[in-house]
Specification:
mainly alpha; globular
Length: 96
């Protein structure tokens, strides 16, 4: 996959790395402030990883009911951490 530090640097630089899986692309776009593109990439996918990212995106949007639905689909619970901390946790979890 990609090193977490390299991923975070690519967000700062505004350069999407080649070959990222769709769920990391969604996190990348979200990291650059483009929530809509992040959501559009993940919206129709139902695999657990995509559902997890989808849940985070709806949590960030402030739609906790929808977020909780997607957390459940991913087999997860809504974390009790900041959105920034959750984004970092997701990048670490799915970049390995």
């Amino acid at each position: 996959m990609i090193d977490v530090i390299d991923f975070e640097q690519s967000v700062k630089d505004g350069r999407l790395p080649d070959g990222l899986p769709v769920y990391l692309q969604a996190l990348w776009y979200d990291g650059t402030g483009d929530w809509k593109t992040a959501h559009d990439l993940i919206d129709q996918l139902t695999d657990p990883r995509s559902a997890h990212i989808h849940a985070y995106l709806h949590r960030k949007e402030g739609d906790n009911w929808n977020a909780d639905y997607w957390y459940k689909r991913a087999g997860k619970r809504r974390p009790q951490v900041s959105l920034n901390e959750e984004w970092e946790m997701l990048v670490k979890e799915y970049s390995q």
